[in-house]
Amino acid sequence: MTTPTRKPITPFTLLKWALPVLAGLGVLALAFAMNWEPWFGYAAVIAGGLGALMLASEHFGVRG
Hints:
mainly alpha; 2 helices
């Protein structure tokens, strides 16, 4: 029985994983610039981190 080969991790893949976190940081900066409640920006960063984790886990074949 052969094991499936993993997809390579390219710089584009890393950029794709980082986009949700970067978007969350952008929302955090916007929240402070617009004088919104800071928890809105913090929640966006957390959601971006979870999104990046989901993209990375899907790349490695972890589904849940």
